[in-house]
Amino acid sequence: MAIVVTPLSGSEKLCFREVFTSAWASGLLSEYIRTYVFVKFSLSHGHREMYSPESNSVYMSQKWVRIEESADSVRKLVMESEFLDKVEDNATVRAWSEQCQIEKGDNLVKGHVSELRDFTNISVTQNELQELKEIWTQWDNETKQQFYGTYGDLPYLLDVKIDKHLFRAMAQFWNAAYSCFSFGKVDLVPTVEEYTTLLRCPRIQVDKAYSKTVNGPTFVKKLTNITGMSEQLVLARMQKKGESKCISWTCLRDLILAHPDAKKKIDVFALCVYGMIIFPKALRHIDEAVIDLFSRLDKGVTPVPAILAETFRSLNACRRMGEGRFIGCAQLLLAWFHSHFWKVEKVSYRFITENYSPLEEIAATPRREDVSEESWIALFQNLQEGDIGWKVPWLITDQILYRCGSFDWVPLLGIWGATAYAPLLVLRQYNSRQFVPTTYGLAQCEFSYEWGSYKKKVKEISSAWNQIHRMKRLSIGPMTTSEYREWRTRRINDNIPEPNPEGAQSREEYLRVVPLELEIVKQDFEKMSAELERKIERLEEEKMLLKLDVDGQKSETERLRKEKEKVEEDRDDLKMEYKKMRLTIRNAGLGKTPEPWRHEIQEEKAKASSWEKKFQEMQTQNGILRKDMAESHKEKKGLKAKVAELGRSLHHYQRRDSKDELKLSLNKTKEMKGKIEGLETTLHGCELRIELLEAREGQWKEELHHSHQQVRDRDYLMGEAIVQIR
């Protein structure tokens, strides 16, 4: 067998360095030197493959053999291969962190008095997502695949159920001083790597963090570019919630359903997911800060630091106030929680392939919903290190982002403010050995963009993200150092529920089915609730009837009010007319006392009565004259008849040529003519008298009518005067 020693490749250096640094830090270098030395070898007749019998041996892709060598030879080999060339090793970072902790101290010191309440009443009120789900289910597979390729696994958040009991129990254990969950002896926090893996967005650059723009495009311009709407339409539909501009979900929903551009339709749907699930600050509205972040995604900006920042800031705010509404992404936080607590929930994960989606499996996995908040709190209070899965099965990474720039931890820029977290606090989540982390200043790093000098801090943090520091994980040896265990024991927490060993029970006891007696009580309670619901329904019906009555009363009141207004208007008009009439009376000299008015009216009535009597007398005389005239007409007719008879007699006498008779007839004729003329004269006189009487009768009628009119006018004036006097 011919053994040929050759220099190590880059990947081989990293694998060997992990063993070397672990051995160096633990003081067992000589033991590892006697046990692990790897070189390439070749045989003239073929290749052989051998592995270390130790459980923590490193898997190498090429053919390796284990041989014994001296410590000096190993050190020489390491130096010649430039083993520690570009990557910060675990031992160096550990030494730096522990030194910082010694020099600067902890985030909280002994004697700290917490201002946090013992219980946080946190609300997880979320937007109604049914319409978003319906839109997603209506899309064809091609459109869905286009969405996945652009925005990742966001749609699976629609199916993640929110267990309010679990979430409220988790909030009690949020350690605001260290930006992590402290469950008993366990510290856990969502990391940038874990959230990036959960979202699986192919377009983002993991090191390109979001920062709030100062002099960027306006809200209208950003929304126009995203949705394709005109600026006039955006201005018309823009709303304000407090000090922030926003646009309603219903407006964007209608746009998704009717938009002719498939790409714009996908963009608007993704914007709604960000505004209603990931950053649900304004219910059923998308805030302008969300739109600012979303407009930067096409430039490769990662949203993960902003999501973590608003998650941590919301938990901090609720813990400080003792209550409040969580405005981070509850679905993503619970998905992360279930991934670490699969041992508690007894959920197994399938083999991870290239196209594996953690969110898809988490959303599809059935969960228990019958565990009370008190049971979860009791479980978390006594949680042991072996009860959880430190490293989630789907996280595949060998490098850990542990600080940025001059900061000792990772600062996070959100869309409404900034905060930070310390990945060195949770190295076991990367399957790396846990040592003492540096945490000084974490509690003071949070600020809001409403703060006056925030722009300078944002610029500083943005520059720090251009100088990120990563370290290799180390999984050799014990998972915690003795220094860490000592530090964790004496660490001062900020009003976190302490473990209760006396009441500690097994996981099964905490999560077991509710006892029979309690089940009976629950059934009784449900019956009472059903009865109360029926009563509530009856009360609702009565309320509806009362509401109808109230509406009727309101209508009647409105009608009476209108009538009152009309009466008041008529009263005002009457007052004006009264004033005008008073002025007219004063100008006409009619402003007399009632007694003279009565006397004058009586005189006028007496005059009217006398005129009526005269009129009646004249009518009587007129009737007599008419009778006389009729008799005269009759006599005239009789005389004419006699004259005709005399004419005939005269003619007869002329025939007889009787002179005497003729003379006698002529005399009679003359006499009759004289009578006729007298009668005609009398008749003419009567006719003249009748005409005169008729003329006087018309004049008397006019005077009588005028007198009656004067009497009526004075009666009216008298009545008005009496009303005024009253």
What do these coordinates show?
By secondary structure, the protein is mainly alpha-helical. The chain has four domains: 10-85, no CATH class; 87-126 and 162-213 and 300-500, no CATH class; 127-140 and 214-295, no CATH class; 594-725, Helix Hairpins (Orthogonal Bundle). It contains 24 helices and 15 strands. It has helices at residues 10-26, 29-35, 71-80, 90-104, 130-138, 141-151, 164-171, 192-199, 219-227, 231-237, 249-258, 262-278, 288-294, 304-321, 330-340, 342-345, 358-364, 373-381, 454-464, 482-490, 507-511, 516-588, 594-656, 659-725, and strands at 38-40, 64-66, 121-123, 174-175, 180-183, 186-188, 238-241, 244-248, 285-287, 323-325, 399-404, 410-413, 417-421, 447-448, 468-472. Strands 4-5-6 form a three-stranded antiparallel β-sheet. A three-stranded antiparallel β-sheet has the order 7-8-9. It is rod-shaped.
Oligomeric state of this protein: single chain
Structural class: mainly alpha
Rough shape? rod-shaped
Main sheet specs:
3 strands, antiparallel
Strand content: 5-15%
- In spatial order, strands of the major sheet run 4-5-6
Please tell me the total number of domains: 4
Coiled coil: 518-621
Keywords: Coiled coil
Protein name: 227 kDa spindle and centromere-associated protein-like protein
InterPro entries: DUF7745
Summarize the model shown.
The chain has 726 residues and is mainly alpha-helical. It has helices at residues 10-26, 29-35, 71-80, 90-104, 130-138, 141-151, 164-171, 192-199, 219-227, 231-237, 249-258, 262-278, 288-294, 304-321, 330-340, 342-345, 358-364, 373-381, 454-464, 482-490, 507-511, 516-588, 594-656, 659-725; strands spanning 38-40, 64-66, 121-123, 174-175, 180-183, 186-188, 238-241, 244-248, 285-287, 323-325, 399-404, 410-413, 417-421, 447-448, 468-472. It has a 3-stranded antiparallel sheet with strand order 4-5-6. A 3-stranded antiparallel sheet has the order 7-8-9. A 3-stranded antiparallel sheet has the order 12-13-14.
